[in-house]
Amino acid sequence: DQCSTNQTHGFKVGMKLEGVDPLHPSIFCVLSVAEVIGCRLRLHIDGYSSLHPPKGYHETGFDWQVYLRSTNSKLAPEDLFTIPSPVSPVALPLEAVDRKNPSLVCVATVADVIDQQRILVHFDNWDDSYDYWCDSSSPYIHPIGWCREQARPLTAPQGHPCPESFQWEDYLEQTESSAAPSSAFTPRAPHGFQVGHKLEAVDGRNPMLIRVATVTETDAHRVKIHYSGWSDQFDVWCDSDLCDLHPAGWCQQTGHPLETPAGKTPRDTSRLLLLGHIKGPKYNGHHSAFGCPYSDMNVRRETIFPDRLAVGGRGLTVSEFIESLLGCEDLAKRFRDQVRPYLSQIDGRALLLLTQRDILSIMSIKLGPALKIYTSILMFKHDVTTET
What we know:
There is one protein chain. By secondary structure, this protein is of the alpha+beta class. It has 4 domains: 16-80, SH3 type barrels, CATH 2.30.30; 93-184, SH3 type barrels (Roll), CATH 2.30.30; 198-267, SH3 type barrels (Roll), CATH 2.30.30; 318-387, Transcription Factor, Ets-1 (DNA polymerase, domain 1, Orthogonal Bundle). Helices cover 20% and strands 21% of the residues. The chain contains 9 helices and 13 strands. The strands form 3 sheets. Strands 7-6-5-4-8 form a 5-stranded antiparallel beta sheet, with no helix packed on it. A 5-stranded antiparallel beta sheet has the order 12-11-10-9-13, with no helix packed on it. A hairpin with a 3-residue loop joins strand 10 (210-218) and strand 11 (222-227). The longest helix has 21 residues, at 367-387.
């Protein structure tokens, strides 16, 4: 919503801003505008943020003015951003759909709120790669008890001792938390999309491109998009309010290129222009089926973005690992100090077995910091598993 067809935005290449890491939605990063096409921006992640400073800068005491002078760049002005209004406070439990596994409704928590409008949904005892941002009208979040009313199964937190008999009352008492009130959830009006509607849509497999598309199916909150001239295997379901969907004529009015549909025969991927790469916008093109986002070997794979925050922690002691937690230096110090009397008993294996509940109850750390620490442990576990 930063740019409509009747206004021009003020973003320019080289401007600095803050934004969410797409692989770790709980983390904010220092960004640069790398490319501007019409009303769309390609952003480059300068470094890590919670706000994490860019690599090479000391991880405490980050100063925007010092950074701007050293990189000879300027901030994106505040008036370029829209700021909407109030939602749920942090740490309130709720029930939320797992966007990566939409058949699951899980125990979740409001982990963060920005602009008093957008909330970060975190699934209890899972790492932050499953987190997502939404507003209070999202059809994917519900007050506690919704699954019971709808006669739907509720997925308990990972590691819960009795997942089949999970009870909210007991869980709220154990975590010393209060439920998000029903008034915090505002129902979303039905969308008006109909089968056969034409529009312009960002290519989900090659986001630098926008294509002519058709709505082929709809449900309460989603639409199925078919890219004109392409095989049905590239059709995709998406949310009806997705910012990558635009009305016909949007590209022309905003100065963004619109890809011309192929002829009546669905396009053969072997004849594709060598645009895009399965590993994302780091590469502008590909030279083989291995890198082609449309090839048979990649068609069912998500675009692979390298995880900047994967921890290469082999050889670290427990205390060294805790001290190395990105963006959590003060929290890590507190965690280390509280654990220190037991360090002789907590080796690497024991550390990896700690649950979010252990950190909350045994360590007596508040929910927000506990989520950050537990996420770092899960990231380390994933990295070690991948390497071995």
